[in-house]
Structures are given as C-alpha cells and as structure tokens.
Design goal:
mainly alpha, 2 domains
Length: 347
C-alpha cells in the first residue's frame, strides 16, 4: 500500500508540472495520456483522466483519449512509400515493421512488469527489516525505562542514607561537644582542687608555724582542719570517680556512634557501587538504542533509494530488427514518422 501511495503522489506531482507547461486543455490531456501509458504502464480512461486533471468538461478527456488512440494506432503502423515500389510490397513491409513494433512493445511491457515485481519485493523486504528494527528499538526503550526507574530508586535510597549519615554525624558532633564541655569542667575542678591544695598547704604551714608556739592550744583546731581536709579529699575523690564514669560512658557512646557511622558509610559505598553499575547499564542501553536508530535510518534511506518504476523504451525497432535498405534517400524513415510527444515520453 505504501508503494502505490508513493507512485500516485509522484504521478500527481508530474501532472502538476505538466499543468504549468501546457495551458490548452486538449494538450494537457494528451500529455497525461502519454505519461500514464508509456511511463506508468496504465491504460488511460476518460474517468481516470478527469479525476487526475479536473479541467474542462467530461467530453474534453474523452476527445483527447480518442485522438491519443488514433495517433498511437496511426504511428504504430509503419508505411514504406516509394514511387517505384509495388503496393503489395509496400503493404508487406509495413505489416512486417508493425509486427516488429508490437513484439518490441510486448517485450518492453514484460520487462516493466518484472522490474515492478522486483521493486515491490525489495520494498516489502526492507519494510520487514525496518519493522523488526523498530521492535528491537521498542524493547531497548523499555529496558532503558526500567533501568532508569531502578536508578532513580537507588538515588532516592542514597539520598536518604546520606541524610541519615549527616544526622548521625550531627549527633556525634553534639556528643563530642558534650565530652569537650565535661573535660573543660574537669579541668576547672582540677584547677580548683590544685588551688585548694595550695591554699591548704599555706594554711598548714601557717598553722605549723603557729603551733610551734601554741601546739597544745591549737591541737583541737588542727584536728578540725585535718577533718576538713579529709572531707575535701573524699569529695574530690568522688568527683574524680564521677568524671571517670562519665568519661567511660561518653567513650562507649562515642564508640557505638562510630560503629554505626562506619556501617552507614559502608552502606553508602555499596549504594554508590550499585549506582555506578546501573549508570553503566544505562549508557550501554543508550548506545544500543542509538545503534538501532541509525540502523532504522539506514533502512529508511534504502527504502527511499529503491527504484519503484523505471521508464522503458517503447520503440526499439532499429535495435531489434535489421534496418531496411532505403530505396531512395528522399524516403522518410520510420523514426521520422513517430510524433514528438512519443519520443519525449521515451526520453
């Protein structure tokens, strides 16, 4: 069906070109008859001519068709005229040339039919190849869409995992800040303890210096001071134990967070590896799709480049049969009797 449509479109284009060349209605119908009969192998009819040209009344294509058949019959009959040649010999020679012309025309028609069948077979084969290539391209498009969907899902998982990782890193940063604050507080306590020890040492020296003169008088005071020192030492020891416990607790939490962070990072690496594999598959499928697209374009160009119909020469009298020797140089040849529009159609 596609070949017939292309042939009709080309025929209509050639008729439009003839319409611009021939303004007279009869001349236009005559050239369309020549085009249909000699180039496309279609027997012209009055209805067909009117449907293609649509100019003038219905009698115009009938009259042009009648003149075309008369001219064709007249020119297909070869006459050999010479004053000195007998009339029976002239008629026999004319009938021989006419028979040769009919056989040449029949052979040309058969060759034209063979060429048409070959062209139709080539077009059908090319259309089948193009259909298979389009089906393969559709399958590749489906695989590409599925891979793209999988890639998008993996990217979503990767984004969610990265968000969890960022949140875990924020929590670790907050806990690290708490540890830093606890260490600062410990340093402040140690500094306060050192200051208390220094102050206690000074006071002890003062007490010892004073106790040299009044040891008994200050014995009770000395015991009280020692008790206060012991109490301070116990308190400092308890504070150090609490700091150590807090440090161990925070260290355990930090190790747990680091372990979770390492697990999340390994998951991220696995997802990135999977993402790279999917992107490689997508690139390969796109290459296949581009290759199939190029194959389809190549097949389409082959289909468009296939010759659908070629004009076949209608007159081969001079080539197929030995020429008759002219009896007189002034006698007109058979080629001179062929009308100009038939020779133009052969060219």
């Amino acid at each position: 069906m596609e070949t017939i449509a292309v042939a009709e479109a080309r025929l209509q284009a050639e008729i439009e070109a003839l319409r611009s060349q021939y303004t007279e209605t009869q001349d236009l119908y005559r050239e369309v008859c020549v085009l249909l009969f000699f180039r496309y192998g279609i027997t012209p009819t009055a209805n067909k001519l009117y449907q293609l040209v649509r100019k003038g009344s219905m009698s115009a294509p009938a009259e042009a068709l009648t003149r075309f058949w008369e001219t064709l019959r007249e020119k297909s009959r070869v006459r050999i005229e010479h004053p000195d040649l007998p009339e029976p010999l002239r008629d026999a020679a004319g009938e021989l040339m006419g028979c040769l012309w009919q056989r040449a025309q029949t052979a040309a028609q058969e060759d034209l039919l063979v060429l048409r069948e070959d062209a139709r077979s080539a077009v059908v084969s090319a259309n089948a190849d193009m259909t298979a290539a389009i089906a393969k391209a559709a399958l590749a498009e489906g695989a590409l869409a599925a891979s793209t969907t999988d890639l998008e899902a993996t990217r979503s998982i990767l984004i969610a995992t990265q968000a969890d990782l960022a949140r875990a890193q924020g929590e670790v940063t907050a806990q690290q800040r708490q540890i830093d604050a606890a260490m600062a507080q410990r340093q402040e306590l140690q500094q306060a303890l050192a200051a208390a020890r220094e102050q206690f040492t000074r006071e002890l020296e003062q007490q010892r210096t004073a106790s040299v003169a009044a040891e008994e008088r200050h014995a009770a005071d000395m015991k009280r001071v020692l008790l206060d020192v012991d109490r301070e030492r116990v308190q400092v020891t308890n504070v150090q134990k609490e700091l150590e416990q807090s440090r161990r607790t925070l260290s355990n939490q930090l190790d747990s967070r680091r372990t979770q962070l390492a697990e999340r990072q390994s998951q991220v690496e696995a997802l990135r590896h999977r993402n790279g594999e999917l992107e490689g598959i997508v690139v390969e499928l796109r290459g296949q799709r581009d290759q199939m697209t190029r194959d389809i374009d190549s097949l389409r160009q082959r289909v468009e480049a296939l010759p659908v119909e070629k004009p076949v020469a209608k007159r081969r009298v001079k080539r197929d049969a030995p020429p008759a020797k002219p009896l007189n140089a002034a006698a007109p040849s058979a080629a001179e009797k062929v009308p100009n529009f038939i020779l133009q159609s052969d060219n």
